[in-house]
Design goal:
Length: 186
């Protein structure tokens, strides 16, 4: 018989790109108020995940100052800058928990947190079979990280109240993830 604790241990909450550059009003590529409003929800989800024995993954854009990515987008999430730090209460949460064995920070070079990172290996070593996703942007990095998880055989759940974007595509991205990746939208 499988217990709730065993289920939680096989889960991970992936928090995507909740940096100052993506969330703060002065960020280089901000989703602004919609992103700021989801922070308390994400902090609560992270606390619940740890309390129940699950894992919390912080997946964060990480760019060098001369990254070719900036030919397409304004500069953002340059490694070691204020812009790359986690925003507000989420940053405070991370400072409090960063040394917890089930809190893992994964820098990522592209939209999909699985692309050219060790995220897949981390999740395999932890025995994770299901991921819950939150963060920004719903229709870019959350969408493509959900695709990456799906392609690796993981069950996916996107927490709609924990996602935001700077476009008008929030709802359509959720519907597309549900259709294409059989993602549960909660």
């Amino acid at each position: 018989m499988t217990t709730d604790t065993q289920i939680a241990q096989s889960e991970a909450l992936i928090i995507v790109d909740m940096s100052n550059d993506f969330v703060h009003d002065d960020g280089g590529l901000t989703a602004g108020k919609p992103a700021q409003e989801i922070v308390p929800f994400i902090v609560t989800q992270a606390d619940e995940m740890l309390k129940n024995g699950g894992n919390v993954i912080i997946a964060m854009d990480a760019h060098l100052p001369d990254d070719s990515h900036f030919e397409e987008w304004p500069p953002h999430n340059v490694i070691g800058t204020w812009g790359q730090k986690l925003y507000g209460a989420l940053g405070e949460w991370y400072e409090k928990h960063e040394h917890h064995e089930r809190v893992i920070y994964v820098p990522k070079p592209q939209y999909d947190a699985f692309y050219n990172t060790n995220l897949e290996q981390i999740l395999e070593e932890l025995g994770v079979k299901r991921v819950k996703l939150t963060g920004v942007c719903t229709d870019i990095c959350v969408y493509l990280t959900t695709a990456g998880a799906y392609y690796r055989g993981l069950k996916t759940q996107v927490l709609a109240n924990g996602c935001a974007t700077f476009t008008e595509n929030h709802e359509s991205a959720l519907k597309q993830m549900e259709l294409c990746f059989h993602t549960e939208i909660a």
